């Protein structure tokens, strides 16, 4: 996955299976980077917003967009006012390859719950520790079992699906 940030067709199929068609409902991609996951949500019919704290990421997301697509906003999801988001609640909140880098994971998840609509889905993609070989340069990208436990606590529905290295979580309040 590092060096290849596009969501694969297998990843897109899992996403579609777990979040369903958008039908114009709002979706939020947190830490969108160049926006690959946000564009997949847009293709599913979600009215999608991609946010990132890095100006370069938002510029790259805008540059790679041709025609209709998500809206892009410069925003730090962990510290900025969530009231600045375009919608008060989202049918899907998505987060791919970001959770690993979040210092206060419980606080991050609290903020996800604040913007997730009732019955909505939190779609999170992350690597897991131990899935790469010991000499793999990217082996540090995986989250620990304790970090996975923090992630999956306090949801009424916890769905998981595995890609070759990353795991996808579909979490519902
Ligand atoms: C490893 S990249 C993943 C990008 C994209 N989600 C993907 O799958 O290709 C992590 C991204 O998360 C962004 N990010 C990290 N913490 C963030 C935060 N608190 N708020 C918004 N963006 C954040 C970084 O700027 C970076 O663009």
From TrEMBL:
InterPro entries given in the database record: Methyltransf_11, SAM-dependent_MTases_sf
Pfam families: Methyltransf_11 (PF08241)
Methyltransferase found in the keyword field: yes
Protein name (Swiss-Prot/TrEMBL): Class I SAM-dependent methyltransferase
Lineage top rank: taxon: Bacteria
CDD domains to which the protein is assigned, alphabetical: AdoMet_MTases (cd02440)
GO MF: 2-polyprenyl-6-hydroxyphenol methylase activity; 3-demethylubiquinol 3-O-methyltransferase activity
Transmembrane segments: none
GO BP terms, alphabetized: methylation
Residue ranges annotated for the Methyltransferase type domain, each copy included: 28-123
Region described as Disordered: spans on this chain: 1-34
Enzyme class: transferase
E.C. numbers: 2.1.1.222, 2.1.1.64
UniProt keywords, alphabetically: Methyltransferase, Transferase
């Amino acid at each position: 996955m590092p060096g290849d940030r596009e969501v694969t067709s297998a990843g897109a199929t899992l996403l579609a299976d777990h979040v369903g068609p958008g039908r114009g409902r709002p979706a939020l991609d947190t830490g969108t980077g160049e926006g690959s996951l946000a564009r997949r949500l847009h293709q599913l019919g979600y009215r999608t917003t991609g946010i990132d704290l890095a100006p370069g990421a938002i510029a790259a997301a805008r540059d790679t967009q041709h025609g209709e697509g998500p809206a892009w906003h410069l925003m730090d999801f962990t510290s900025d006012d969530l009231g600045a988001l375009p919608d008060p609640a989202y049918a899907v909140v998505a987060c791919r390859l970001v959770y690993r880098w979040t210092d206060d994971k419980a606080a991050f998840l609290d903020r996800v719950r604040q913007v997730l609509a009732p019955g909505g889905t939190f779609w999170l993609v992350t690597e897991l520790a131990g899935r790469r070989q010991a000499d793999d340069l990217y082996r540090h990208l995986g989250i620990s079992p304790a970090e996975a436990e923090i992630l999956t606590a306090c949801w009424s529905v916890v769905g998981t699906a595995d890609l070759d290295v990353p795991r996808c979580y579909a979490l519902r309040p």
